[in-house]
């Protein structure tokens, strides 16, 4: 079972919303392992480079090959978390300091040598935490599948196969020249030491030391003498099989490898550097059966020259290093912009929660997914100032409510005292014991506005004024809703402090889905004030939503605005409806709402 399936929430079938929710989850993961708050997580796109940009404080994750469906399956989510942990791990082990320390000293091929070593360090760092090891293993399994088998005369490829891919073809290793065997022994020792995650100055010194000893073999690899080995290299280059490794153990007879096992299994990775994937400058001969794999040629900052160290011939061959960035890892610029907009407007998919509420309230009723319900926040449109006259009327009503609440509690308190001297308890208890009283404070309220295409002109302006005035005197959220042309039910939060944003009416009227969508997160005793013209025409009806809310203990009051002939969806059993001819009747309707919500209607009539 995928680990992320235990904790991930807020999935979506809309790719932009799914991408935004993934970034939120990845940022929480990165923060939990130590990434500073000023750093942010982004997906690699056509305009954004790969890896960590320390100047902009960005960690860029190449998720293009993973973000192919929405919602993202749990197994791919594990890989994405592992990829993020790997990139953050490079920050935690100071890979950037290592790359800065060697960038001005040596040729680009040496930087690739350091990249492999840093990937080994990051892998050990991530897997040292048992809670994170499974994510890195999932990443390793996914990233090493397309890696080609190492050529017998390429020392760096053999190191990648041993240290990162975790596959060793012992039959091939036995046929290597003695100088290659000795060099691999040195790299095995270096790998075992790197898995202890030493400090970055020590790693810089180690890379320089081992590079001086192995540079000749790396830049001028020996030719393969045995024809059988050459044939094997040419034919089995694309996808190595586990059976070719000869054994799952990895140089288990070396003392350095015993340290490797103590520090966990290996992983794969990437870090920030320019020119990571090229091996130009090598003056070797390639076999006839060998093909060039250029999947990693799109890494950021690549631009190696074949004239380093006096060499004049460049070989068009690249290292097939796991997780080396390529063009397939970037998402489209359009999707990146949509994800950025979804993050800015705090888009959230509540479709599953809405369907769950309907299923619980209507057992056996055929509830099926029709339209996705997306909640977001408006931030760009102008703010509306509340009508001061209407605001004063509402404040006066709330003052009356507070006085009635004080008198009710005063009478109940004195009733408890006087009952001790009563003899006719059966009759007098009804006078002094008040069963209901106003709850302390204003109820948890959300104001829901129908701003579909039918709410146009005066009606749309009046409901916005009514919502703005009420929101200015009570602590309430203001939401509007409509169905867009692409079939999405949009719930937009428009309140900003004590003001609300301007909205334009558009689309269909999914009243039932909107009522349930806005109720997500509300507790027992909450109140939804729904302002509409009564023309429901999309999705489940308000009547179904009313009973689903009643089962949860959330109260719903519908204020049908203006049109008195469009109430067939609200003139049903149990529905709480108020009909308003215009904005002038809104204060009286609010008073009736408060009285009924507190269950003191009969007492007030007396």
Describe, in plain words, how this protein is organized in 3D:
The protein folds into two domains: 73-323, no CATH class; 376-387 and 440-605, Rossmann fold, CATH 3.40.50.410. Helices cover 43% and strands 10% of the residues. It has helices at 15-32, 74-92, 95-103, 108-127, 133-143, 155-165, 170-174, 178-194, 200-219, 227-235, 255-262, 333-344, 351-361, 388-418, 425-432, 458-473, 511-519, 542-552, 586-597, 601-605; strands at 40-43, 51-53, 58-61, 348-349, 373-377, 383-384, 445-450, 476-483, 489-493, 495-496, 499-501, 527-532, 555-561, 577-580. The protein has an eight-stranded mixed sheet, with helices on both faces. A three-stranded mixed sheet has the order 1-3-2, with helices on one face. Helix 16 (458-473) links the parallel strand 7 and strand 8 (476-483). The longest helix has 31 residues, at 388-418. The protein is elongated, with a radius of gyration of 34 Å.
């Amino acid at each position: 079972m995928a680990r992320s399936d235990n904790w991930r929430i807020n999935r979506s079938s809309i790719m932009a919303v799914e991408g935004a929710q993934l970034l939120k989850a990845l940022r929480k993961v990165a923060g939990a392992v130590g990434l500073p708050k000023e750093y942010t997580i982004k997906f690699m796109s056509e305009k954004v480079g790969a890896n960590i940009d320390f100047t902009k404080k960005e960690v860029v994750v190449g998720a293009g090959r993973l973000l192919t469906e929405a919602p993202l399956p749990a197994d791919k989510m594990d890989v994405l978390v592992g990829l993020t942990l790997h990139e953050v791990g490079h920050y935690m082990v100071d890979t950037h300091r290592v790359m800065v320390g060697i960038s001005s000293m040596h040729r680009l091929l040496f930087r690739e040598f350091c990249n492999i070593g840093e990937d080994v360090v990051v892998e050990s760092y991530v897997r040292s935490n048992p809670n994170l090891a499974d994510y890195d293993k999932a990443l390793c399994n996914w990233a090493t599948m397309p890696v080609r088998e190492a050529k017998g005369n390429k020392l760096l490829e053999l190191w990648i196969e041993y240290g990162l891919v975790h596959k060793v073809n012992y039959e091939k290793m036995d046929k290597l020249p003695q100088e290659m065997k000795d060099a691999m022994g040195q790299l095995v020792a270096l790998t075992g030491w790197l898995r202890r995650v030493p400090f970055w100055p020590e790693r810089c010194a180690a890379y320089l030391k081992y590079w001086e000893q192995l540079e000749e073999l790396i830049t001028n690899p020996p030719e393969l003498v045995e024809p059988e080995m050459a044939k094997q290299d040419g034919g089995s280059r694309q996808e190595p099989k586990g059976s070719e490794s000869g054994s799952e153990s990895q140089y288990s007879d070396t003392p350095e490898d015993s340290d490797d096992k103590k520090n966990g299994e290996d992983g794969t990775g990437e870090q920030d550097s320019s020119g990571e994937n090229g091996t130009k400058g090598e003056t070797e001969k390639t076999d006839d059966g060998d093909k060039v794999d250029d999947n990693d040629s799109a890494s950021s900052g690549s631009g190696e020259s074949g004239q380093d160290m006096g060499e004049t011939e460049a070989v068009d061959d690249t290292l097939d290093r796991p997780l080396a960035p390529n063009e397939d890892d970037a998402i489209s610029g359009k999707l990146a912009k949509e994800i950025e907009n979804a993050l800015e407007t705090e888009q959230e998919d509540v479709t599953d929660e809405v369907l769950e509420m309907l299923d619980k309230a209507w057992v056996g009723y055929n509830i099926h997914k029709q339209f996705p319900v997306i909640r977001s926040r408006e931030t760009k449109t102008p703010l509306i100032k509340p009508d001061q006259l209407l605001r004063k009327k509402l404040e006066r009503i709330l003052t009356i409510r507070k006085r009635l609440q004080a008198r009710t509690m005063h009478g109940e308190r004195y009733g408890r005292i006087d009952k001790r001297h009563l003899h006719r308890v059966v009759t007098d208890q009804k006078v002094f014991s008040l069963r209901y009283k106003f709850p302390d404070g204003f109820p948890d309220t959300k104001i829901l506005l129908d701003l579909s295409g039918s709410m146009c002109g005066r009606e749309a302006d009046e409901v916005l004024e009514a919502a703005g005035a009420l929101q200015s005197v009570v602590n309430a959220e203001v939401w509007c809703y409509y169905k867009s042309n692409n079939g999405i039910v949009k719930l937009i939060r428009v309140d900003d402090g004590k003001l609300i944003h301007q909205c334009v009416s558009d689309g269909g009227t999914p009243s039932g889905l909107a009522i349930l969508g806005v109720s997500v997160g509300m507790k027992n005793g909450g109140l939804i004030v729904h302002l509409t013209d009564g023309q429901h025409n999309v999705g489940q009806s308000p009547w179904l939503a009313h009973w689903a809310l009643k089962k949860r203990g959330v109260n719903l009051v519908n204020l049908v605005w203006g049109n008195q002939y469009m109430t067939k969806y609200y003139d049903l059993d149990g529905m709480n409806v108020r009909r308003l001819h215009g904005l002038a009747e809104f204060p009286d309707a609010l008073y009736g709402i408060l009285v009924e919500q507190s269950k003191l209607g009969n007492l007030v009539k007396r």
